[in-house]
Amino acid sequence: MDNSDIVATRCPVEEAMKLISKKWVIQIVRDMFFGKSHFNEFKEGKPNLSNKVLSNCLKEMEANGLINRVVDEQDNSYIEYSLTQKGLALNKIVYELARFSLVTDLNNKYYSDEKKKEIEKLFKETLDIN
Q1: Which of 66, 78, 104, 106 is geometrically suited to a Cys-Cys bond with 87, CB 3.0 to 4.6 A?
Q2: Closest listed residue to residue 59, CA positions, set 45, 34, 75, 39
């Protein structure tokens, strides 16, 4: 069996993509790194994200081991989400996606050079990138 057979039968990139390629997953993971932990917080700034889609996404992320869901014993309506170790391992992916966007904005269409440095620093610090 050569290397192409190994990758074709169970490619690690494809396995990772199964976990993170669904719409909203990476954005929710990013939001969690930046301190959001409640259902309505994940909807902020995402007008096209319906309650049903978000609910299904969070359930799938929990089933895939990316997040924990904790229901408050005193108040069943108070639910808090957090990243698992598996979810936390996405820090470099989220950082590199942000960096890719900044680096490929060659004509400063979206960000000035100064703003790019500021954003990269923020992501690097928040995502604990060494």
Answers
A1: 66
A2: 39
